[in-house]
Design a protein that fits this description.
Double Stranded RNA Binding Domain; Rossmann fold; 11 helices
């Protein structure tokens, strides 16, 4: 391996030296063209300001030739190949430059003589890229799997984990465009930033970082004017995004407009941008479990202040159906194919809601509500109306409960 004359040093919040200006400003979000026939080369997406506390340490990063320049065949669509190296290098430069006080790009690793002050060395790799296309309902999805290993400059392994970054778009894509990589790269950045703030093996190397957190944040005064409320849906990391029920948490936001007329509902997109990376689809479940810890971070509180969010409702949805299978009989034989009879299904939707007061940095309440609906199958009728009524009933009850917590009566 040839060794350049010196390492590149990257200082402060992803300011990349000796790179094209568009990468230094992280504004390269234009639609990329195929690198060559059947090869997609994604661009680095524009990312919001990260609400994280920089680790007071100097980190190194080593990009293998395969990571920086290699081409991968798509596991889900073999006719497509990807060359993610330039975007991936820019992404890791940006995230690591944001997370650490200083980042050094190493020309070789393990290094016989580490640059002064470097205590950690990151060695990322792209494990796989998978594109999924479904005809009914039509959607396209992409999974980019990164492996991240952390070593000492001399090669001793300190930590390692995998990022399963993904994005999804409605409709069918084609091989001549790349609509999906931008979202997957943003998801990877969010997961990496959140992991760097919480990995015990890494934090042990930079213990002074914890002194930047505030042990007991002072409550801020409530803003004048309408209450601003954010509604964010929770789902398990293993649950695919397409399995989330449509209309949630939209139906709760709509119900709150009637239950709390003077409330202003903050969109999920605003929350994700204002509090990046904590409320992305891949990080929100862990965030919900660590809200008290998160609200101690000055950077997070500044994001809440700038977004003007007074309350945040974290919502998890569960749906069940009780069926009577004996009422509907089907015959699949060649003599009399088809179904006869009527089957009734009782549908229930349960919403688990945690309401946080972001003026006082405290939990205002935690509760569950349940809504009921019914659906009737006559032959092959689809029970959409009953499912919608079940959700609406639960959202109305949750909105009423939230209104009592925001506006005690």
């Amino acid at each position: 391996m040839q060794t350049p004359a010196r390492s590149e040093r990257i200082r402060g919040a992803g300011a990349v030296l000796a790179l094209p200006a568009c990468l230094a400003l992280f504004a390269c979000a234009s639609a990329p063209a195929p690198d060559s026939a059947g090869v997609l080369r994604p661009s680095m997406p524009a990312l919001p300001l990260a609400r994280t506390t920089p680790l007071r340490a100097t980190a190194g990063v080593f990009y293998t030739p395969q990571f920086a320049h290699g081409t991968l065949t798509d596991r889900g669509t073999p006719a497509i190949s990807h060359r993610p190296g330039p975007a991936s290098v820019a992404l890791f430069d940006h995230v690591l430059g944001t997370a650490f006080g200083e980042l050094v790009r190493l020309p070789a690793w393990p290094a016989s003589s580490a640059p002064p002050g470097v205590s950690l060395v990151f060695v990322p790799r792209v494990v796989a890229i998978t594109t999924i296309r479904q005809a009914t309902p039509p959607f396209s999805a992409r999974l980019i799997e990164y492996g991240v290993e952390v070593h000492t400059p001399t090669g001793e392994r300190l930590d390692g984990w995998t990022l399963y970054a993904r994005s999804r778009a409605d409709g069918q894509g084609n091989t001549d465009e790349d609509r999906l990589s931008s979202g997957a790269l943003r998801d990877a950045a969010a997961q990496l930033l959140a992991a760097l703030a919480r990995r015990p093996a890494l934090l042990a190397q930079v213990p002074a970082t914890r002194q930047t957190e505030v042990s007991a944040p002072n409550p801020r005064a409530a803003r004048a004017g309408p209450v601003r409320l954010a509604v964010t849906s929770l789902f398990e990391p293993s649950e695919a995004r397409e399995r989330r029920s449509p209309g949630e948490p939209d139906c709760l936001a709509a119900a709150l407009v009637h239950a709390v007329p003077d409330a202003s509902i903050v969109s999920a997109e605003q929350v994700r941008d204002a509090l990046f990376p904590w409320f992305e689809a891949s990080t929100v479940v862990d965030t919900a479990q660590q809200m008290p810890e998160l609200m101690r971070k000055a950077a997070v509180r500044e994001g809440v202040r700038q977004a003007g969010i007074d309350y945040m409702a974290l919502v998890r949805t569960e749906r069940t159906s009780n069926r009577n299978p004996d009422a509907l009989r089907c015959d699949t034989s060649h003599r009399a194919p088809g179904c006869s009879g009527v089957r009734g299904d009782a549908l229930k939707t349960r919403l688990q809601v945690t309401l946080w007061n972001l003026n006082r940095y405290t939990m205002s309440g935690k509760f569950e509500v349940e809504g009921a609906g019914s659906a009737t199958f006559a032959g092959l009728t689809v029970p959409i109306p009953g499912a919608e009524r079940s959700s609406a009933s639960a959202c109305e009850r949750a909105a009423e409960a939230i209104s009592h917590l925001i506006r005690p009566r």
